[in-house]
Write a structure and sequence with these properties.
about 80 residues; Serine Threonine Protein Phosphatase 5, Tetratricopeptide repeat; globular
């Protein structure tokens, strides 16, 4: 799943945003299945998917993914304290 996330990041950097969405979504789907929906890495995958939507001009969807990442971050931090 990390490799798919990294491929998505490269696609985003070279401007292939549709491919980036595909790879980040794949990383997210695998991450939720293997790690559970509230794992810190899943938050990273949500954040990266949000960044792709943000970069493509879909700010509303990007913001939804960013908010989901923030929720997971808060949940995982609460477990640590």
């Amino acid at each position: 799943m990390i490799s798919y996330n990294n491929i998505g990041a490269v696609c985003r950097d070279i401007g292939d945003l549709e491919k980036a969405k595909e790879y980040h979504q794949l990383a997210l789907n695998i991450g939720k299945e293997q790690l559970g929906p509230y794992h810190a890495n899943v938050a990273v995958f949500f954040n990266n998917l949000g960044a792709v939507h943000h970069k493509s001009g879909d700010l509303e969807t990007g913001n939804e993914y960013y908010r989901r990442a923030a929720e997971i971050d808060q949940m995982t931090k609460a477990k640590l304290h």
